[in-house]
Amino acid sequence: MTSKVFIDGEVGTTGLQIKARLEGRSDIELLHLAESDRKNPVVKREILNDADLAILCLPDDAAREAITLIDNPETRVIDPSTAHRTAEGWVYGFPEYDAVQRDLIAKAKRVSNPGCYAISSVAILHPLIQSGIIAPDWPVTINAVSGYSGGGKSMIAEFEGGSPEDNSGVPFFTYGHTLSHKHVPEITRWSGLSHAPVFVPSVGRFAQGMIVQVPLPLWSMPGTVTAAIIHEKLTAHYEGQNCVSVSKMNAGREIARLEPETLNGTNELRLYVFANEADDQAVVMGLLDNLGKGASGQCVQNLNIMLGLPEMAGLS
User: Fold this and answer.
1) Do 137 and 268 fall within a single domain?
2) Is 116 a residue of the active site?
3) N or C: which end of the chain has fewer CB within 10 A?
4) Are 251 and 127 contained in the same domain?
């Protein structure tokens, strides 16, 4: 039996990637909306309610509006926008979050797909806060760099447009200087922090890929905290997972550099613990494809879980 899936916003950056991962699958029937009907609420209501599962690849306000059009109690929803990531009644779509999250996703009617920066930050912080290694009120800082595809069609055009007014010659820039990036509430809630972290994102001249860094001055943390303990906790938390892994601790002495494009085209999130034992310092880094585990790949993983299909279908 096939499941009917409607991607609302299938021509956007995330929607196109989800569509590519689902096309050709015999267990999925993709429903499509004619371009002329894209903003017709009557036609959109009909197709949303006809779907077994709808994916809302839309701006936040449009995603909220789409939800109001759904009155079929059997239509299930995955929202990759920011609109519902901290909303009550929505299940957070990070299966590796803890031992029960995958089951919650499987039973959910409404699932919020994590943000790219957020899923990496939460993957690092949640196990360490849950285990007591990092206190909820610890002054966490997060630094990150993403490929320009994370900014959607407008930023892609800025980097690839080629005009003097765009970013075609810019190698790198920081942004979010008000320290109020849209992923911060999500990171704060799902990591278990009691205060928002200081988050400094940036964009590099590459289309896809991401590195997220959480520096930890171990000498200033209460109790005895070592890089080895941090690595042990993260490794135990993600043991046996297909899409989240922790690199061996000695890799910190062997890897001269990490490149953000390494995991492009995959649905993998790989964590690293690097340490300077002499100065009692550590940094935990997350490496992923911002359009894979950070967006479309994670969405397909959630879809598979919700529809009772093989979890890695369309991902490997």
Assistant:
1) yes
2) yes
3) N
4) yes
